[in-house]
Design goal:
Strands 1-2-3-5-7-8-9-10 form an eight-stranded parallel beta barrel, surrounded by five helices. A two-stranded parallel sheet has the order 4-6. Strands 11-12 form a two-stranded antiparallel sheet. The chain is globular and about 80 Å long. Helix content is 50%, strand content 10%. It is α/β, with parallel strands linked by helices.
Length: 532
Amino acid sequence: MNYRALLSALFALTLSIHGISPEGATIVAWRFEHDDLSYLQKVVDIAHQNGVNQIQLSGEIVNSVSAVVHDPERARRIRQVTLSAQQKEMAVYLSIREFQDISDGEKISLDDPGFWGKAHERYKALHEVLPEIDGLVLSVDSVELSIFDSARIQSAMNGAARLSKLVTELDTVCRELDWDLWVQFPEVPPTEVDRIIQAISSASKSVGVIIPALPYRSHPDAPDHPAIGRFADRRQIVEMDLGNTHYGRCLIPYCCPERVSRQISYALSKGAAGAVARVDCGHEHCVGTPNEVNLFTFCRLLADPSTTIDRIWTDYLQMTFGEKEHKNLRFCLESTGEIIEKTFLTQRLPFLNDESRIPDLKAASKDLESAALSAWIPNLKKNEVLLKTITPSVAQSMVVEKDEAVAKCLEAHAALERARASAQIPVYIGLSAQLEMLEDAARLWRDLTDAYCAYQLWKQDSSENRRARLALSHQQLSSWLRYLRSAYGEGHPIFDADRLDNFLQQIAPPPPEPNPPVNPGPGGQPSSSPPR
């Protein structure tokens, strides 16, 4: 039995052993994106055994309303998953984006009654091919086309009024089709929150609202979303990303039950009826990985909010590793939270991180320029200012932070070695391999950060010292290309050599002067350790 299969089998027993508390949440939901029927059948079974009563199908599973309507095989897969879940008394919803079917460049008018007539017909066609589903989850956040896009979506209405109109129209057709409707609270700046609350509140009281637990979803220290608890007249649940889009995509461990606990406790204290967990991120998912402890925490606390974190850790470790003492294993897994955050955050900012991937140089500081994070966490404004103009001291502090992540990796691996005797062999081997990947990420982002800083310092002062310093960092980072291709192949979701190659080309130093100086200049040092 492999590592994933062993953890999945053990996890499936969890809440059936510990029971469901009657004081728990009324809605416990999991959301899936990965369009693989065997995977979905497996996780639906596990969801049922862990007290889940709502399934949301999203991402590549649905793709778009038109994709479901015009692709009989896609509809067949969704129907099969739906019927399987409903047999286990779980409601099934499709997550849709209203404007995902609009072709590139096409403009629409929300003030044209004909548009809404076509929208109604589209959902009636969806009902004809999938009458079994229980309802829809409307998302208005989209990289393709948003209702707030004033260029392609034309209307005399402002953004909040557009949303209100969309929710009302979709609710009308859902009532006609006997479908339930939820709307996801869009990702907006703090100044827009009250308007969005007003827009959703103007819709029928039967429409539920799904609010992100954190308003800035890619940052674990963002405050609780200010809309939580503001919908006393309707159902509300919070959404949590346990697929870890920005923190390793569940391919490397990020165990943070304390953060999960805090978010759930806050939501329930504000009157939320429950929560939905994003279980996967594309083809990567947390079931059968160390990150499953986050999903375990999610289910346990929604079942019984009085459960302590110590109890959760004790039960999870005993379930997974047996009835022995697990101090070292807990230290090992808990360490991954600090390692991941020091790796993928810089000075507490989401910097040099494109959804757990190596960024394009121009996109590296995208969040800094928009100041979107400091709008929610004002005390990070000073960090944004520091990272916009790199100095030698700032560069050194950035690299030191990454060195701390590497050092913590070594501590975690040492703890795992101390626990080796108490772990089942497949689990030990799997954890060891995961920690090696985590160390690779920490070391790679360490050298990526160092090279970025060297490049920014050279741009400020194109002296030979700075050029030589950049050349050293560039050379060290270049050695990762060969290693990534040999160890992870092509197109890995985190360790993508082509992305690294592009980054290296963007920061390539010019040729040296005829007589370069010996001292390569200040600003940190390239890694003394090559990739493993």
